[in-house]
Amino acid sequence: MKPIVIDTSVWVDWARGNNRESLNLINSRVIYMPSIVIMELLAGARDKNSKKTIKSTIAPFIKHSRIVNPGLKDFAKAGEVLSQLKWQASKKSNDVLITVLTRKIGAQLITSNLKDFEPVCKLLNIKILNTS
Predict the structure, then answer these.
(1) What are the tens digits of pLDDT across the range 44-74?
(2) Which of 98, 116, 112 is nearest to 13 (CA)?
């Protein structure tokens, strides 16, 4: 089975108690976390408790070397994808980079943000495991 990358939207859904049934998608799967997801999660933390929860969530990924960091080639590929889709560099840049990193490690993507991810995943031939 291919490994999985979980988009920020799904982590946020789970933290809010939503889409719990989508947890079934990750049973017996190796999960990776792009560093961009960590950035997005921490950017959304508004209090100490939220930050503590996020840090405890990412700790196992750090411990088991399952953080995926972008390099120059990844940023360049993301720029090419944004250009092909005729998208400006914006918040969608993070989604494109997450997808590029998903492809880099040969993983599938779990997201509840199909609107932004479908065009990118189609272009890069990445399978989306939809949570809705």
Answers:
(1) 999 999 999 999 999 999 999 999 999 999 9
(2) 112
Neighbours of 23 (CB within 10 A): 11
**Element housing 109 (H / E):** strand 108-111
Strand 128-130 and strand 108-111: pairing? parallel
Tokens 């921490």, residue located: 42
Tokens 């400006």 correspond to 88
Q: State which fold the 4-130 domain adopts.
A: Rossmann fold (3.40.50)
| CB neighbour list of residue 43: distance below 8 Å, 6 or more residues apart | none
- Cα–Cα distance list, 91 to 19, 69, 102, 117 (Å): 23, 18, 18, 12
Torsion angles phi and psi, residue 58, rounded to 5: -85, -20
Cβ–Cβ < 8 Å for 32, 4: yes
Per-domain residue ranges of the chain: 4-130
**Distance of alpha carbon 121 from alpha carbon 103, whole angstroms:** 9
Angle at 63 between CA 95 and CA 108, to 5 degrees: 35
pLDDT-flagged residues of the chain (< 70): 132
